[in-house]
Amino acid sequence: MEKMKELLDQIKNPQTNNTLTAEKRWQQIDLKDGILTVQYQRDGISPQDKRIIETNIEESLKGLEEVKEIIVKTTSSQSQDVFKALDNQPKEAAKPAAQPAALKTGHAPAANKRPVPGVKKVIAVGSGKGGVGKSTVTANLALSLANLGNKVGIIDADIYGPSMPMIFGMREGKPHATEAKKIVPMESYGIKFISFGLFINENDPVIWRGPMLGGVLNQFLFDVDWGELDYLLIDLPPGTGDIQLSMVQNTHVDGTVVISTPQDIALLDATKGLEMFKKLNIPVIGMVENMSSFICTDCGKEHHIFGNAGVEKASAKLGVNLLGKVPLEMELRTGSDNGVPYMSQNQYEGRAVWNAFVEIAGKVDSFFYPVNPTANDNKPGFFSKILGLGK
User: What is the number of structural domains in the chain?
Assistant: First the structure.
């Protein structure tokens, strides 16, 4: 134990070149049953320097027989660390036999940005705040884009709260791997998807640190056999943390959609998320106002439970597109709970929620491929797609 503490005393803050001990950052050093848990205070330490510190901790202790596993935790009282680090981000460079699939739970390797093989457009779907219906919107947006003739996939990157297996009725699904060790994504209602929820039991907690999460996202991007996709949607966890940074460091993201409910507290967090995407130089396709209103089935009156037109006003103020407003409807909730997503059921065609998703998908599609295509536009039209032309 003394040798271990002596080695930890030598770990330095790359920014100041002072040791964490000298800066009084260590908060916990605990060894139990071969598992070493260390925790330090990381105010002012960028995500890049955080990774350096964690690597140095592992490298310095790897020769100790009593340490079988290392868990590094951090605490921070400053919410601006990530944004300060983003200001210094480098600008983007110019552009058979089934076997169980497994996840590598080590750290994400340093990688240059690269495209996802076979995928034309990668879209990040974020919210900044949890509980705004982001996963439900992502799933139904994917189905709406597919209804336009696109081939669509989803990465469920919300490691701590994966929802796609439930939404798509695949809670018992277990991915397999190809002979080339590529993970085969699940497919439901014509949508390919991969989710951390497919690899764990639903009740198991996930207690992972940032670099390990980045490693899983890296696998979902590049070790999954996506085939040919027009759109790959990444359903991000709430916030502005390691998953978001890993995503933009590893691959080119073509655009982002930000989800929020109309109330002020949700808009505050959504605005932070939107500003993060701008700092990461990811084009903002627009914002979606979810749970915009509720229409009483008995009296027919519209009720603005979470406020009126909050996202519409915020998008105008921020200078981004309002893609649409999705009202509350019982069938939208029950569809997600029962594994039969709303936009997979044609009997809802023409209803308010259906029309909202059709509008949103149309605006997303036209963001990349204008409604009035020029002669040089190489994207096939809807009828060309359903006839199998141009694919």
Answer: 2
Is the four-CA dihedral 368, 370, 374, 379 of positive or negative sign?
positive
* 62 domain residue, yes or no: yes
Rounded CA separation 50/268 (Å) = 27
Cα distances from 93 to residues 112, 116, 132, 248, 262, in angstroms, run: 9, 16, 34, 12, 37
- Co-location of 185 and 63 in the same domain: no
pLDDT in tens, 331-367: 998 999 999 999 999 999 999 999 999 999 999 999 9
The DSSP code for 77 is S
| Among 62, 77, 92, residue at a domain's last position | 77
Six token digits for residue 371: 């409604």
- Collapsed DSSP state (helix, strand, coil) of residue 284: strand
- CA–CA separation, 351 and 345 (whole Å): 12
Kindly report the pTM of this predicted structure: 0.65
Tell me the CA distances in angstroms from 190 to 87, 141, 182, 320, one per residue in order. Answer: 40, 13, 20, 31
Residue range of the domain that includes 43: 8-77
